[in-house]
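Sample entry (219 residues):
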Amino acid sequence: MAHIKINLPLIGVLLSLLWTAGCSPAAPTSTPTLDLNPLRTEVAATVFAQVTRDLALTPTITPVPSATATSLPTATPGITASPEPSAAATLSSGTPQAATANRDQWVSQSIEDDTVFTPGQAFTMTWHVKNVGTSTWTAAYLLRFFSGNTFGAPKEIAIGQVVPPGGEIDLKVNMKAPAIPGSYLTDWVLSDQNRANFKDPVYLKIKVAVPGTATAAAK
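Predicted structure, serialized as tokens:
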């Protein structure tokens, strides 16, 4: 009986231990820790390679140098071409005269403008003019052809007489109508003995027509 008593406490201790072990929560299973270092290294290498490739493909921007302002060369003054004067603009040539020294004024003429002549018909043209300047015209003054058609007349004719200021003179010129039908113009101008032209021309316009249609009024 003593032997049984001794074993009962021992059995109780063993049962207590078993119960405690059964009631204790199971120890958590340890989760293995993932080593991320190799993955980080691989990702970093991939990103670095991509960046390097992108930089290699990106064109290098070369800075454009700023334009340096260059001063324009200063123009050297030159001679400006003047338009050629027309016959109506000026008739002066040779030695200049005072503004009112040599002036003439048309008074009348023997043949009216637009008179019709037959081809080659001869006539005498007379311009009656007045000296409205301040100088006296000498016999050496000239009536000179200026432009148009000469109608067969000499290009210079001496007036042959003295004309004081306020005096008048008939300027007679022997002419001949052109041979080809059409309209024609002749311009003449007075000048002094040095061939300095007056500024007041005289002129005549005529028409030339075939025989049978002409109504010449030559005098």
